Amino acid sequence: MKLKNLLLLFKPNVASLGFALFLAINATGVWGGVFPFLPTDFQRPEILFWFFLAQALFFSASYFLSALGSYFVPAVTRVFLISLSAAPYLLGWGCLIAAIYLSDFALPLVIVGGVLLGLGSAGFYMLWQRFFASQDPDIGNRDLIAGMAWAAPLYFLLYLIPVAVTTFLIPVVFLPLFGLALLLKTREIDREQPMYQDRPREHPKVYRQVLHVYWRSALCLGALGFCTGIMRSLAIGDPEIGSLVNILSMAGLLIVAVALLIVWQFNNIHLNVIQAYRVAFPLVITSLLLLPFLPTVYERWLAAILYAVYMAAIMIMMIQCAQASRDRGVNPVFIYGFFGGIVYILHDIGFISGTFAEGVSIAGLDSLTLVTLFAVYLLGIMYFIGEGGFRNIFFKGSSEAADIELVSPRPPSVSELRAETTSTSDAYIDVAPPTRPTAAASPDEDSTELAAETRQTAFGRHGDGDPIYQDRISKQAALLQRYYRLSARETEVMELIVRGNTVARIAEDLVVSENTIRTHAKRIYAKLSIHKRQELVDLINSFDPHDIKD
Above 60 in pLDDT, residue 445? Predict the structure, then answer.
């Protein structure tokens, strides 16, 4: 049975295969463009540089503009116009193909191609992200991760096709295929969800809170993007490195995606981006500092490994943004545009900084050493800012994004719940209700954050790892969460409903719209097979794992 469940996880469908094909085609541009499938003599340093610069700048700019557009003109984001992304994507490929044969116009054609591909690929990423965010978390996350896993085999299969043929197949055959898959799946989207009906300017407080909570996570992933940008600038003159990085980054993505799907099948997964970055930071700093002292082959492999990790980070970013859209009811384009914009602009800064630092010598230090020192310095600054900077030193408390959560499809056994109940039977703490801030408080440090801190305290832990609950309701809510596979946000809303809070009060405490809370309540009732609040109260009061039959 377990083997069958695993096979079902990897079983391709229209969504996962369509997304995988898009990633495989787009991966040909991960390292300076489509150059793995274009003539080697075409891959001159100036071609590589100007193509990537144009592509990267317009790619990251598209994310920021999309976030602004979703805030000021939200109605536009409810319309899935795939042609708006397909047209520049197709024309961009056309410019690159034309550049091969029109050598006198190669550079301007490559620059225009980079601009168009940057706009088109950003548009497709936005469309796929909106689709995955609109799905049930189990289905959406599964298809997203499975698509990442299938992207690698599809990319490797491209090498079996003659290079000259592949160049033309991508815009003529593969682009229409993944465009059609996206078109078919977007027809299934329920556009009545709060994330699509939301009008941001009617409650700007919710969106300010989203920016306040998620910018540190974005900065952490952006620091990794900065490192990959630096490595790209150091090796852009060698086309062989581009092929190596593409292959290894896709292989690394395959390994991470497969491992994530397998672990998720049997266990709940909680991943905190900021904590993961704290662990990885010393390793990244050390690997960069070794650059000037080790042979050139180290530079190539470091670039490949960093890009493999970077591709996995992009997957994590998409999962976190989709979760934020569902939990907070915010427009998926807004959170993904904001998050991705920070990550990709830092990647661009790394590339531009590394490129212009090459050939410069100061105080007898060669360009590679200068680039390394500059990279390490900026990483240190970003780490300091990400940790809260001086504000966190002098003022306690910080707001971090919620953990990325993948609820295992395997419900806990009754014996596991009984063991948990026995070990935590008296683990209660008293938590004072949140108080209103004073007039001198920061606009971000309002009653919502105080309420959030209270909830976090209520689900703290003893020194030996046992959970601590505010009272029996909190404990029973946690048990229901595990037994019925509720998400952390659904459990939060459920407990607040049981405690008698109105929809308006819950929305105020969680800094979301009232429609978002109503949507969460509907999902909770559906999962628990109940229809009204009193049934929820009765269920949570009577729920006891000791009384559940195997």
Answer: no
State the SS3 of 149-161.
HHHHHHHHHHCCC
309: number of CA atoms within 13 Å, CB side? 21
HSE, CB side, 13 Å, CA atoms: give it for residue 299: 22
Smallest CA-to-CA distance from 406 within 525, 193, 278, 260 is with 260
Alpha carbon 328 to its chain centroid, in Å, reads 15
Q: Name 255's bridge partners.
A: none
Contacts of 195 (CB under 8 A, 6+ apart): 133, 134, 325, 326, 329, 330, 331, 332
The span from the CA of 198 to the CA of 287, in Å, is 44
Nearest Cα to Cα of residue 169 among 358, 329, 34: 34
pLDDT higher than threshold 50 for residue 272: yes
Q: Dihedral sign, CA of 316, 320, 326, 327?
A: positive
Residue 14 burial (CB count, 10 A):
14
The amino acid that residue 435 corresponds to is T
At residue 398, the pLDDT reads 52
Tens-digit pLDDT profile for residues 464-473:
445 566 677 8
Give the confidence band of 393 by pLDDT, cuts at 50, 70, 90.
low
Which residues make Cβ contacts (< 8 Å) with residue 71, sequence separation at least 6? Answer: 200, 201, 207, 331, 334
Q: Residue 312: which H helix or E strand, with range?
A: helix 296-328
- How far, in Å, CA of 339 to CA of 438, rounded? 31
Residue 466 CB neighbour total at 10 angstroms: 12
**Mean pLDDT in residue range 240-268:** 82
- Prediction pTM value: 0.83
For residue 439, give Cα distances in angstroms to 393, 447, 450, 505.
Answer: 22, 12, 15, 21
Residues ≥6 apart with Cβ < 8 Å to 496: 505, 506, 509, 510
CA–CA gap between residue 134 and residue 130 (Å, rounded) = 6
Q: Is the dihedral of CA 127, 148, 318, 309 positive or negative?
A: negative
At 31 the three-state DSSP class reads coil
Backbone angles phi, psi at 498, to 5 degrees: -60, -35
Element (DSSP H or E) covering residue 456: helix 447-458
d(CA 250, CA 243): 11
At 270, is the secondary structure helix, strand, or coil?
Answer: strand
512-519 contacts at long range (C-beta below 8 A, 24 or more positions apart): 512/206, 512/327, 512/328, 512/329, 512/330, 513/194, 513/198, 513/203, 513/206, 513/329, 515/194, 515/197, 515/198, 515/329, 516/194, 516/328, 516/329, 517/493, 518/194, 519/193, 519/194, 519/329
223 touches 343 (CB < 8 A) = no
Pairing of strands 404-406, 269-271: antiparallel
Please give the structure tokens belonging to residue 404: 């990325």
Of 150, 147, 146, give the one whose Cα is nearest residue 264.
146
Residue 224 to residue 377: CA distance in whole angstroms: 14
Report the residue count for the chain. Answer: 550
Residue pLDDT, tens place only, 125-159: 999 999 999 888 888 999 999 999 999 899 888 88
